[in-house]
Amino acid sequence: MAETRTEPVVVIGLGRFGTALALELVSRGTEVLGIDHRHKVVQALSGRLPHVITADSTDIEALRQLGIAEFHRAVVAIGTDIQASILTTSLLSELGIPDIWAKAISSQHSNILTRVGAHHVVAPEHDMGERVAHLLSGRILDYVEVDADFAVIKTTPPRDIVGVPLRESRARSKWGVTVVAVKPQAALPGGAPRTFTYATPDTVLAYGDLILVVGTVDNVERFATSD
Ligand code: ADP
């Protein structure tokens, strides 16, 4: 069967991160098996998650009985109990799950998770801290680092590129960034909501328009802190 993004996912550890992840997946139509060893947590979620079970994920027999080996994707959302997180990840690897995601709470934790078989490691607290630091600077309204040194930001245009077609603006030559989409601030007749559309070389930006800009981290920062 071809791999699709709607294949079932097992989410192990239903703390704040695991619960938010599981509920979001379910709301997007993905089948989720949620597992937590605290019965109270499982009970509290049973009305919102169609498949949620009390089990200890450090017990390989329990994992086998639940048929976890049949899953293509698993997320280890245990953070605080590092030992349980590492052991669970290594057991999922032993069961041959092809796509294991794990949450880390430190860089050492992240390294170990990779060594014991995690294919993807996420560090939500660390990443969110970095992200908020960017949101606090200049006009950056949203920030996503898509690679080690490359980011997409939501911002408003600096004076230099307002009122001229993008092809004539100095977005590339002065800041080394590319404006990829724009959501004009000016209302549409009848008050219909504005949406983002792709920017073209003919796009003319106005003050207060929302724009999506891509470039290296340094360049998008410089762009969003100039006036
Ligand atoms: P968050 O910061 O996202 O709330 P936590 O690490 O505090 O993350 O929560 C992780 C969840 O994982 C808790 O609900 C905890 O009961 C669960 N958990 C911890 N160890 C195990 C285990 N061995 N088996 C199953 N669930 C576990």
From TrEMBL:
Pfam families: TrkA_C (PF02080), TrkA_N (PF02254)
Superkingdom in the source lineage: Bacteria
Record's signal peptide: none
Cross-referenced InterPro entries: NAD(P)-bd_dom_sf, RCK_C, RCK_C_sf, RCK_N, Trk_Ktr_HKT_K-transport
Domain RCK C-terminal: 138-227
Record-annotated RCK N-terminal domain positions: 6-128
Protein name (record): TrkA family potassium uptake protein
Organism per entry: Micromonospora echinofusca
Lineage per the UniProt record: Bacteria, Bacillati, Actinomycetota, Actinomycetes, Micromonosporales
